[in-house]
Amino acid sequence: MLRTVVCRAGSGLLKHSRQTVPAFWGTRAQQRWASSLPMNTVILFVPQQEAWVVERMGRFHRILEPGLNFLIPILDRVKYVQSLKEIVIDVPEQSAVSLDNVTLQIDGVLYLRILDPFKASYGVEDPEYAVTQLAQTTMRSELGKLTLDKVFRERESLNANMVHSINQASDEWGIRCLRYEIKDIHVPPRVKESMQMQVEAERRKRATVLESEGTREAAINVAEGRKQAQILASEGERAEQINKAAGEANAVLAKAEAKAKAIKLLSEALTQQNGNAAASLTVAEQYVSAFSNLAKESNTILLPSNTGDISSMVSQAMAIYGSLAKTQGPSTVEKTNPETTEMLLDRNDGSENETRHNV
Known about the structure:
single chain; 359 residues; alpha+beta; three-stranded antiparallel sheet; 55% helix; rod-shaped; disordered C terminus
């Protein structure tokens, strides 16, 4: 009995292999959707990742799972064989018009998978053709919403919108669109030339803008450098003048203090014993020093009548000093203003009887 069944199954397979493939699976692309329909041999082995749809007396009965299955001869028949693998479909090139009225030639690749073999078998006559047409019409609709520039910039969002739109329509067919990828976008030659000119103009514009910005930055840097140099130079000059004035002021103060101390010491020395003799000696030394420089600085000088009599000049100066001391008293002499003492010492350079001589 088992031998008879095997022989009948073999003859059935031979007969099926000789049968003509239905028009629904006529093309090579369509044959990807299912393998050749097997005959009912009672014992059937379903491959992995395939779903066999079985009809009993013309009505849907069940879907055979991968592995060993049993069917009733004559009553049961395998009507559809669906592949559960991911399927890749080339969407043919088509023309579409963008939002700015540019005609584009575009094609793509569609990746999908059958999730419900029942809907894929009874929900649509030709699943591949239906999905391909749906992808083409959806692509035309999506391109009509975008301008030419946005088509190139927003390809990812365009692909996502395509997948969403296809899934909404193919949900009743038991097919799930996984992703859609745009392969090529062809534009008319004249549009391509204008795009190239636009790109070149944009690049020239960028180059000009960058060059002008560089020139401006260079001019700003030069001006800032000059400004900083002038500021630093003026600050240096001001600091130099301040330092110079401070130095001169300190020198003047130092000289004045030294002179005041000298006059104070001189006035104190005059009040001590033998102070007059010391003053006479100092006046004589100054007189001799001044007399030696008479003709060095000017051509016209004033000389006293008794130039060579040093003793008379010293005695005259001391007489003036003595008369002032007697008039003001000892206490007044000690408190004499340093300027008055200095004037007394300078009185030795002249006398009441002076004569003008030309050297």
